[in-house]
Design a protein that fits this description.
The chain is an alpha/beta fold. The chain has a single domain, classed as Survival protein SurE-like phosphatase/nucleotidase (Stationary-phase Survival Protein Sure Homolog, Chain: A). The chain contains eight helices and eleven strands. It has helices at about 15-25, 70-80, 105, 110-120, 140-155, 225-230, 245-250, 255-264, and strands at about 1-5, 30-35, 55, 65, 90-95, 120-130, 165-170, 180-185, 190-200, 205-215, 230-240. The protein has a nine-stranded mixed sheet with strand order 3-4-2-1-5-6-7-11-8, sandwiched between helices. Strand 6 (about 120-130), helix 5 (about 140-155) and strand 7 form a beta-alpha-beta unit. Helix 1 (about 15-25) crosses helix 5. The termini are far apart.
């Protein structure tokens, strides 16, 4: 099995190291990860400047590169230029912090898995982090790494259909406290922008942006609910963003004919 590993926290992130160490016994692991923090870069790609790579030390027996680009760039380089052969699985993580609900659209880790999915590979993103506002002494990365190893083995025997990838969130608990695995949908999380106006040493104003979570949904079939109740959450996602239900409704209303009669 040949596994391409990336993240958005950077090539030295503890979650990446833990994952590389755990996946190494499964086969050939190649790490191509950002040289610096790239959280919230979403699915961005580097088009107007060079992308540079340099060898990096991540885990014994694992070939690794630090990339100047985004997580999406890392996937593209890994599969097209740096891998010694065809990749079987793309794993993104272990992300430091949860990727729940609308978070996945901001997350460089989740969108690295999307990039792998678009390129036709079985891909998943895996994250671990405490509830908002809660501090914990450790992330129990081994729990997430062990699940990722199991998932890689499962995906090797059960490749995902085209256009689909998996988003996984693991509670920050020891393995013996995990209550099980739940298949979930994305919950609804609302954010309120926090834009603090500051002044730099030269007297020029700038803004520092933050996000405040407002009113998380707690329906029992959501990723948020599963994680809060001690379950690993696994959510299948797809690259096709078409609102199919609305498309069908608009077709029933014959919107093109309405526009032809009134819109011209």
């Amino acid at each position: 099995m040949r596994i391409l590993l990336t993240n958005d926290d950077g090539v030295t992130a503890p979650g990446l190291v833990a994952l590389a160490q755990r996946l190494r016994p499964l086969g050939e692991v190649l790490v191509v990860a950002p040289e610096r923090q790239q959280s919230a870069t979403s699915h961005s790609a580097t088009l107007h400047k060079p992308i540079r790579v340099a060898p990096a030390q991540v885990a014994e027996g694992v070939l690794a590169y630090a990339c100047s680009g985004t997580p999406s760039d890392c996937v593209a380089l890994g599969v097209a230029n740096l891998s010694s052969g065809p990749v079987d699985i793309i794993a993104a993580g272990i992300n430091h912090g949860r990727n729940l609900g609308i978070d996945v659209t901001y997350s460089g880790t989740a969108m690295a898995a999307l990039e792998g999915c678009i390129k036709g590979f079985s891909s998943f993103a895996i994250s671990a982090g405490p509830s908002e506002g809660k501090e914990i002494p450790e992330l129990h990365l081994q729990t997430a790494a062990d699940f990722a190893a199991w998932l890689c083995s499962w995906l090797h025997d059960h490749p995902l259909p085209p256009g689909v990838f998996l988003n996984v969130n693991v509670p920050t608990l020891p393995a013996d406290q995990i209550r099980g695995l739940r298949l979930t949908r994305l919950g609804r999380r609302r954010y309120e922008d926090v834009l603090e106006r500051r002044v730099d040493p030269w007297g020029q104003p700038y803004f520092w942006r933050g996000l405040l979570v407002k009113g998380d949904e707690q329906k029992t079939d959501t990723d948020e609910y599963a994680l809060e109740h001690g379950f690993i959450s696994l959510t299948p996602l797809q690259s096709d963003l078409t609102a199919k239900d609305l498309l069908a409704q608009l077709e029933q209303l014959d919107l093109p004919a309405q526009w032809a009669r009134q819109g011209k």
